[in-house]
Amino acid sequence: MSAIDLDFSELTALFINTTLTRSPGPSHTQLLIDASASIMAKHGVTVDQFRAVDHDIATGIHPDMREHGWPTDEWPNLFPRVLAADVLVIGGPIWLGDNSSQTKKIIERLYAHSGQLNERGQWLYYGKLGGCLITGNEDGIKHCASNVLYSLQHIGYSIPPQADAGWIGEAGPGPSYGDQLPDGTRAGWDNEFTHRNTTFMTWNLLHAARMLTRAGGFPDYGNQRRQWDAGARFDYANPEYRC
Asked: Model's pTM, two decimal places?
């Protein structure tokens, strides 16, 4: 392996746990989040995290739902933590073969800001990296991950190679990740596939985030909303002129 700088202290990361269990209750997803977050912290990344269900986050697709009929909404207070992170990892469980209601709510609230611009005139999330972690005891990791990663890239996050990981047990009722088994071991903790993919995801997010950060963000030619509105077409040929 070639020598590489393993100091990532210039980066910040946020893990949002979309478990349905409020703190301090046990969360299987939290165990997998901790595995990824510990690698980041070991190499200097400033790591932040919260459980969505612990907060009074209103349902909706506006930045502040108090302006749209909701009496309370903690999202405006949480969003600065999202915006401060170079890396965002959404970790959540599978229920009925799909992402949890909390996962959906977080994605909707992220989407609420997708029309806003950064200081370079790009969509707000340009230059940030996204990934996801999925846990459950039924099939569905790839389905859930594809939904999360598509949503993140659609609103402007960059997705590096292999940006998802997860663990599921046998189909049907059974132990979830980290549950203690009759022999005293923990479910999933001997699963090399999960450990490998979690590790690869973590490092791919770090490498890509540092490359984008040191490059000053994602290049801004051809993706500036104000420039487009002002008439710039960035080499797009009007079909009327191609006849």
From this structure: 0.91
